[in-house]
Amino acid sequence: YKSRWLEEVRGADLTGLDVRGLELFVRFANAERCTCGCGYTLAGCKASDMTCEVSGGLIEALLDSIRTGKIRSASGLRARPRPGSS
Q: pTM for this structure?
């Protein structure tokens, strides 16, 4: 459950992301763990606790890295599940 895939990350400002940037963001948010101790991915932590200051900061840093081109690839990260797969 703590690793479930989420298509949307609550509270994330996706302004300025193109389709490729959005895909990078969703993949990283569903692969990276929050460091607050909850055990959820970044996307999962924000879905379960909108007040988590740790995941909020990590999500903002991730978005900044994608927008500035510091992150250009999601190679090696968890892929989006196919519809109907578990």
A: 0.89
